[in-house]
Amino acid sequence: MADYLNFELNVEALADRLRVTVGDSPVGSVSTDVTNPFAADEIARIIGVMEGSIQTTRAQRQQAARTFGEKLFNTVFSGEIFAAYLASQERAGEAGLRIKLGLETSGALQDIPWELLRDPRGDYLALSRQTPIIRHPRLLTVRPIAEITLPLRVLVMIASPTDQQPLNVEAEWRALEEATQELRNRGLLELERLDDAQLVTLQRKLREGVPYHIFHFIGHAAFDDSSQTGMLAFEDPRTLRSVPVSGEALARELSEENSIRLVVLNACQAARQNLKDPFAGIASSLVARGIPAVVAMQFAISDDASRTFSQEFYRALSEGYPIEAAMSEARRTISSTLDNLEWATPVLYLRAPTGVLFPKARSETAVSTGGVRELLRSPGCLLRGLLVAVALIAIGVLLRSIFPPRPPGPANTPTLPIEARDVDLTITSLRFLPPNPAPGQRVAVSMVLRNSGSTDSGPFKWAWFIDAPQTSQKPTLEGTVDNIGPGMSRIVAQDFFFPHWGTYVTTAWVNYDSSIPEKSFFNNLRVSPPVNVTAPLTVDFSRLPDGTPLLESRDLKGDEFSVWGFHVGANSASGCDGAIVRVSAEGEANRLTTGLPGSADQCTDLPISFDFDSPVGGAQIEFFATTAGTYTVDLIDGNGKLIDANTVTADASNTSTISAPASGETLSTVRKVVFSGPGKAQIAIQRATFSSPASP
């Protein structure tokens, strides 16, 4: 596969906000400040859920991860950052977009599981090969380039101190052997096991002159909160008890040998960091001293997940995937086979410029462009080329730091649109008429689009989102403009019915699918001032939310008004199973009634319930009393508990009104409103008005 394009995100914690900067992307750089919504207790809770110190059910853990991941995505990928992200994805195409996180100045956010970043429109980014997530520290030592020769050598140190929780190290060793069996059989890869887990033993082993390329540690690690230092549990040869080894001490030995390009720390909390010193952790100490790539665990990981990760990770590497893609493959395997959140535990620190290894050209008769594809195309050495490519890419992180990268060519550079146009589309105005709509009110959404460039724009799309575009599945409104001339403007407008109460900060977006090239993508969005919708929602059942008039009697499914935040239905009773609500359009005003499908004169006295997605503050029901008697409105909370009610006595053949709460105050927990009448009385609601819980 072609090499990834970069989308570098740097997060800086300021006094009460975050500064998010795109430092490197296919569409340029941009920076924006956003509110920091993550309090200390929320950070502590998600970490507790992920590491298992907070006991929850599987469903609760999954929901907590999803909620946190989407909140994190919406915070970081907001406004212009989100526009740059989508435009970068469009540019990257099949090559994929590598999300590079710079978190050294993010304060307490360094500790959160960024691997949970979840696009509300799709899935967790880290689970896809198209959007791998890596940590990309900036303050690093640049190590000299070293060439390698086959076989690739993996040094595996196994530490199992007697005073630590027992690990199934033999099972993990077997998993490594199985994952690399084919390569080892062909002499392209070597595994060497080191059971004497002492730092001095490692020092002496590396001094023997064998050029190891990967160091893989199986054992325990911990992060000391008091000293804010990460420690690996090596072994005392006499007592077999733990000997703490800091990341700095391990890095000191590994960085002496320039041949080591990848370190895999299959140990719990090896990715934890010091908030004041980002390079005091184990993994961060290694990358700070020039190791191109480090894989480490940020939380405790089970034996099953550890084995699954190692096996699939090395297998994907041996199949030719870059290290970032191999991480995503291993994550998905954990997710699918173990069905838990441990896929988010591994962290990849990548300092090398790419996760793809390009073998050095060796042919004297042909110029090599590098890569697996050329080796596979070579008819004279197909088998040998395949084996060499698979073996070399199994090391993953030797990457371009081993051989200087060639200038970008068509194999690893996306084809960008080349147009003889100078186009710069902006939105100069976004308006609503009327400006302060009521729920369910028809509103004209209009915007003025301008081409500030010097040539015609050609056709493009525009969109309007009632929510933030990163949370919406699709635009609320959208349209196409055939062309805007240079320096010209165009007004576009469509109608919309505001659905419910709340404060809406809407977003207009021109050229939102990046279908035409522009000088700047960052001025394509315009966010409206807050639109506050607090007026009562009145429904007279004369039309549907999309404006369709109800001119004839018709049965309702109940979800016709769901965009206004409620469902309507008939409460069941003996002999009335399957009863529905229907609109009766036989008089001067439409009436909401009940009945059996196909038998409008049966089950007409059933209560009608309105079930709301969000709380309402109360209800006023205007009804036609077909029978004299007592009519009732019940207000019920989300747990089915009656929290208020009111009754009224009505004469027959009269129109009456009943409200709850009767005092005119509002409640904040009402999720269901039920209107009922005396037995044998036909229920006939002419108008229902529901108040916002924020109403005075």
Whole-angstrom Rg: 32 Å
Rough shape? elongated
Note the total helix count.
13
Secondary-structure content class: alpha+beta
Supply the CATH architecture of the largest domain. 3-Layer(aba) Sandwich
Strand order of the largest sheet: 7-6-8-12-13-14
Rounded mean pLDDT is 81
Number of strands: 35
Percentage of helical residues? Answer: 10-25%
Could you say how many structural domains there are in total? 4
The stretches of 5 or more residues where confidence is low (pLDDT under 50) are 357-419
Strand content bin: 25-35%
How can the largest sheet be summarized? 6 strands, mixed
N- to C-terminal distance: 61 Å
Quick structural gist:
With 696 residues, the protein is α+β, with helices and mostly antiparallel strands.
